[in-house]
């Protein structure tokens, strides 16, 4: 419940508005006919939240807000030593912390997308089959997003005892990587530079699941995202295990 503070609720509401409005708007046959010069509504029309960075910027802010104090707060007040002095392993501790952060991110990524697909079906914009396929894509993309942002938040939160620093690091690392990739792409004119940014990698995977051709290979992008998540989890585990030994 602490993770669902006022700021996080505002971010979740903003994210839900983006998904809801864009999905419903871009699955409305009359609007699509005008925008696509008579084109039919397809799975790609559900991908609008994942065609730009702003939606993931909200997710980045949410991860920074919800995950900054996940471990750093416990290290700061030394409560982590109390937790780990009980029959709780570092894995148990990380799973508990990750579940709390992941739940907030799950609300952000999964519920609005599923609700928007159902609404588009009930108002007659799309068939049930298309709505169900879109919901499956939202679930698949959402779970990947939840795992990535949660593991990254735990990793960076484990590196400091100050939640403010952890939050700044979560946001700063992702935004810096995005800016760096854009600069490299501008200089080299190569889309391969986009692999440097985890946000671009996530967008590429999301777009491919919705039938949109991304700027970079989604398979390679997915491998990078999963690799970062695995390394982040491993480092966070070692950091928590070290605290246990010291305690």
Percentage of residues in DSSP E strands: under 5%
Taking the alpha carbons of the first and last residues, their distance comes to: 27 Å
What do the pLDDT scores average to? 88
- pLDDT below 50 for ≥5 consecutive residues: which ranges? none
Question: What general outline do the C-alpha atoms trace?
Answer: globular
Q: Over the alpha carbons, how many angstroms does the gyration radius reach?
A: 19 Å
Largest sheet: none
Helix content: over 70%
- Total helices: the number is 11
| Number of structurally distinct domains | 1
Number of strands: 0
Written overview of the protein:
This protein has 247 residues and is mostly helical. It has helices at residues 6-26, 29-35, 54-67, 69-76, 79-85, 90-109, 111-122, 128-157, 163-188, 198-209, 218-246. The longest helix is centred in the middle third of the chain and has 30 residues, at 128-157. It has one domain. It is globular. α4 (69-76) packs antiparallel against α9 (163-188) and α10 (198-209) packs across α11 (218-246). The protein is 75% helix and 0% strand.
Search tags:
247 residues, mainly alpha, 75% helix, globular
Layout of helices and strands, plus pairs?
Layout: H1 6-26, H2 29-35, H3 54-67, H4 69-76, H5 79-85, H6 90-109, H7 111-122, H8 128-157, H9 163-188, H10 198-209, H11 218-246
Summarize the structure.
The protein is 75% helix and 0% strand.
């Amino acid at each position: 419940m602490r993770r669902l503070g006022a700021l996080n609720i505002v971010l979740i509401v903003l994210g839900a508005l983006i998904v809801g409005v864009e999905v419903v708007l871009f699955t409305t046959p009359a609007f699509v006919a005008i925008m696509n010069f008579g084109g039919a509504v397809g799975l790609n029309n559900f991908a609008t939240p994942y065609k730009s960075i702003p939606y993931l910027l909200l997710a980045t802010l949410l991860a920074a807000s919800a995950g900054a104090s996940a471990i750093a707060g416990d290290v700061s007040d030394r409560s982590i030593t109390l937790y780990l002095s009980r029959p709780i392993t570092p894995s148990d501790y990380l799973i508990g912390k990750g579940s709390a952060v992941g739940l907030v991110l799950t609300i952000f990524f999964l519920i609005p997308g599923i609700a928007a697909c159902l609404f588009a079906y009930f108002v007659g914009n799309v068939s049930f089959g298309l709505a169900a396929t879109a919901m499956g894509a939202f679930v698949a993309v959402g779970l990947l997003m939840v795992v990535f942002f949660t593991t990254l938040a735990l990793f960076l939160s484990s590196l400091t005892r100050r939640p403010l620093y952890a939050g700044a690091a979560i946001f700063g690392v992702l935004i810096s990587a995005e800016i760096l990739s854009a600069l490299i792409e501008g200089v080299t004119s190569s889309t391969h530079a986009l692999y440097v940014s985890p946000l671009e990698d996530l967008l590429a995977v999301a777009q491919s699941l919705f039938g949109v051709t991304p700027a970079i290979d989604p398979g390679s992008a997915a491998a990078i995202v999963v690799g970062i998540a695995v390394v982040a989890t491993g480092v966070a585990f070692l950091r928590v295990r070290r605290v246990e030994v010291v305690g």
